[in-house]
Hints:
This protein is mainly α.
Amino acid sequence: MARWRPPQPxxxxxxxxxxxxxxxxxxxxxxxxxxxxxxxxSAAAAEGDRSENAEYxxxxxxxxxxxxxxxxxxxxxx
Length: 78
């Protein structure tokens, strides 16, 4: 049986100008990093068997994490 916890207060959806600039900078950095990871991913995929290729598996995971953060930031930044 789960323990009862009081509801948490919702955070404000408003973003300050400094916060907006920081999110924009992070988004641009992620797009740059994504291009680099994609380049490494295609090099790892060219090495052969992908099921046992640790570099390929790691780069796919990293790309998923970057894409997830990009989607979040694009929804968050008006």
